[in-house]
Amino acid sequence: MSQVATIDPSHAHAEPAESPLTPESWGKLGMWIFLSADAMSFGGLLAGYGALRYYSPNWPVPSQVLGISLTAFMTFLLIVSSFTMVKALSACRKGDRAGTKLYLLLTILGGASFLGMQAYEWTHLIHEGVTLSGNPFGSPLFGTTFFILTGFHGCHVLAGVLYLTCTLLQIGRGAWGYNEVEITGLYWHFVDLIWILVFTFVYLL
Amino acid sequence: MSHHTHGSHAGHAEPNYFAVISVLTVLTVLEIGVVFLPIPRLAIGILLVGLALTKAIMVAMFFMHLKFEKWALALIAGTPLILCTLLMFALLPDSNPELNSAKSTAAPVQHHP
Hints:
The complex is a heterodimer. By secondary structure, chain A is mainly alpha-helical.
């Protein structure tokens, strides 16, 4: 019955045993599990997109309707921001705090620029008549799925930019270190990975 | 910063990140080129999905350091891919226009009192 009563008080505040999967950090394991769950959210949305698109006979050809050159540059920007993120982690491993902060700042700038370009793209499409409920190019579900998929990803980028900003501030204060930068990096690379798939399925296919 | 423990893969040699980003950029350019190739849409689709999966795996392996993690962690990371592939097959009947139109034009079921 009262299991609590049997616990040795001297171990009440002991650190939990290390995870065999990620011996260096429980936080890292937690982030991987979260990312797996989040990947299934995106997988569900992409599978739904595929089913709806296949069913709709008048689905527009995305590459002819959406601006590929801008989104290709956005893809390149996210890839570069992933590069600056690993450079931040590399600098952190060497104990180079100034380098870590610089590369984190560059990653934030990359993410913020991506969001700016997405806002520009959305504004342009809305002016052309693409909305959640309809569009002049064909199946009304084209606009619905486009805004939901890119919007869901955009929310992740926004969360990533905020997360990176928190990490930068905490590194500046000396409160966070390698482990926290690595966990932040995992989230940011995931955002990049998902965009690679969204770019192909929504813009190119 | 030094009081924090470093990761299990902190001991391995660092991948050549510049080479990784260069390959990812080249694959992105290839993807855009593939869209305009004068080949059947199915072939374009297969090529694009192949290129996208290659890029995604490269990001996971080298940027997320999955290559240097324990296999069980890679299993956690790979589970969504397996489940989402199954989901696509599960949705296939719903996305088949012929199957759906056959259902809608089927003779109504006669109810016997």
